[in-house]
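Q: Got a minute? One more chain.
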Amino acid sequence: MKRDVRRYTTIIKFVKELVFKSIQIRRDCVDFLALLNFRDKRAQDSQSVIKTSLRTVCKNAVVNRAYGGMALLFSISLFLLMVGALGFYGLLHFPFGLSVFYTSSLIVLCFVFFRVLLLPLRSFLNREKIALLIEQKFPSLNNGLISSLQLTADKAHRKTVGYSEQLISMLIDDTANQLKQLDLSLVISKRFFRLSCVVLIASVSVFGVVCATKPSFLNKNLPFLLSYLGNGKTLGEAGFMVTSGPVIGDITISYRYPLYSGLQPKTVYNTSGDIRALKGSEIQMSAISNQSLLSAAIIMNNSTRISCVIENGNMIKGVLSLLESGAYIFETTDSNGRTVHDPTPHTIKLDPDQFPEVSINAPAKDITAHESDTVGITYTAKDDFGISEISLVYIQGEEQKTRVLASYSKRQLQYHGAYVWSLSELALRPDDKIAYHLEVKDNDAISGPKVSSSPTYYLEIYSSRKKHMELVQMQEALLQELIHMLADDLTKRIDDERCVEKEYLTMTQDGILERAEKIIGLFTDILVSMQDDVRANYGVYYSLENLKNKFREVTDKKRMALRDAVLGSQETTIPASRLHELQKFQDEEVVDVEDSIIFLNDLIQKQKMEEVLDTGKNLVQSQNNIEKLLDKLRDGEDAKLNEKVLSELRQIEETIRQMMDKLMQMARGEHMDEFLNADALKQIEQNDIMKELNAMKEAFNKGDLDAALKASQRLLSALQGMMNQMESSAQHLADSSFNEMLKSTNQLLDKISELEQKEKKLTEDTDALKRDIQKRTSESTEETFQSFFQKQEKRVAAIKKDIAEAKDILAKNELLQEYLQVNRELKRMSEERDAMAGRFSELFGGEEAGDTYQEGFDKMTETAKKNAKLNRAINKDPLQRDFLSMSRDLPQAEETLSNLE
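A: Always. Here it is, folded:
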């Protein structure tokens, strides 16, 4: 009885709450509609301001939640539709699979609708909840808005309690004024709306990608899914029932791989039907149906139909070739004539045939070689199924050439090889640069051979000219450093009154001294590099060595004087008189640096002119080659000779352009002949050489070999004329550049001659004194030491015999004898120059004398170069050094023995 009363009471209570909530919802809806429809056309009072504010916030909240909820609902619907279409065939395998999917999708959509859209909108039906949202965003209202709403709505309670109408009115006015100053659009956060839009965009993007990558998704799966939703069954394109077809299983697959792969055939039993093999493989397939069949076929990628054979009524056999990835299904026709597509798709995946690999093991770097050298290349190549060909690919000029190194008709998975590349076959020239790499092809006979390449390396032909010009550039860098040092010496004078302070003097001079050390280092680097330069002029070498020694001497004197001045005094200042003394050392340094700059600049210009002359000689040689080729072409047509002529013409044109650029750069310098000015060079290029070159090219292209040969001869004459002008200018430059050097050399030779005379007189006096001492000693000790001298005579005779044998051995040493001969020749040339002081005016009196002197100077330079080369060869062999020392000591030993006798 009590239980029934309790149950009855609970039911009554539940009904009351339900009725109360229904009434409250009805009131909220009425209040919500009234709020949305509120329009106050009169001047707004405080209550109208509050209602307008509530309406604005309510409208923003409803719009934000409604649009965001619909976007999220549409995104989820699109996602469920996509999942259902993609997994359509999988759902067909389960009983009521599609029904369960549709029911689950509907539940999810309803849950999202109520949870995300309906329930949040219900909270916006109440004015007080909207007011609370506003006060949460703007705490400065201090609960004034909610209080105003409650006091305005409950008038009966207000009279009972006895609230002051004036206070309530003031509260409402104050709240309205605060609301006017607030931006109510910030109350409702738009985060949910933005998030829903992002989800919608992502869903649409994924749906679009799926449709683009899987056309069957739109053409077949989606219509099937929607047709089931409409009538409860899945219809195919021809109106057959998919779900009631025969079941196919026990699929056996036999793989026959492409012949090039070398793989053995294999058979896999009782498979899932998925296929994975190389492209071009042949697949022999058999499957068993649980029903009798009239016919069967394999549908590949919803497009290609391959007929199969039916054996024993239910065994399906078919053959297909794999040319692309995708999927396939079985199409069967049962004994009733009904055609059915098997709902289970089977995948086809092609195993990739990897690209081959090739690498150069040595030399795996950029190299420099001579044009006649051979380059050994070792390499490794491999592939997963086999290599067909390995080639060397190189670019010579603008033409790419290929040379096959190895080819294979049988399966070759990996190969280590070597190739000797003869560069002499390529007709290369100094400064040529070749880019080369290896290429390997695999034996893929289905898709075609795949090609891979090794890293590209560069082979540069050694150029003695380039090496020599690098030395000239080093000399130009040295010249710039000397100019900077001269500027420092001129601007940072020691006798400046600020240099009285030791600290300031040290600070200003440290930079100059450091630059001096740098200059000496540059001198050393240049001299060391010149020893390996085959084009180096030994006259230039000795000149630079003298410049270095003189520069070091001057800078060391200044450094020692500065050190003594700074360290020799305990005071922090230096007397002005001492600074003037130090300035003299710096003035001496300035003079030496100025002389070095002038001399070095002339030296550089002379070397550049010699380089241009060498280029001109090569140009003349190229022109002679063209004449010979044209003579051969007159005898008969030859495509290779045509190519050689065109190549020589291009080479001549490029060489002329480079030579003119060099001359125009030199023309901007000082001490140049009038010939070496930019206008004259431009006129030469336009009016003579280039004119004849263009005429020869035009005649050759027309096939008029006689005219081309005549133009070639005129071009040769123009080139020879230009060479004569440049040689004349170079001779003038050499005379002006070395005039001062020759004067200094003559003065030095005079001093050397004077010293030799003094040394000769001193030697004669010493010999006379020695003979007098020997005479006196002999007279006083003749009888006492007679027996001793007899023994010494025997020993001297034995020593003379040994010396004679040593001289025979040295005479057979060809390298030593050649070195001694060259040394004597060099000494003879040096002695001939002793008379140069007396004939100085005659030497420079005319052009013929200048030529004679230049020839003598060049001959002496070549002899000195040969002497240095032989000296290096002897120094490399310790035994040769001993022989040389012995050859130098033998004359003195013989003289000593003669004196002893």
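A: Confidence is low (pLDDT under 50) at residues 234-243, 670-686, 734-739, 836-847.
Q: Perfect, thanks.
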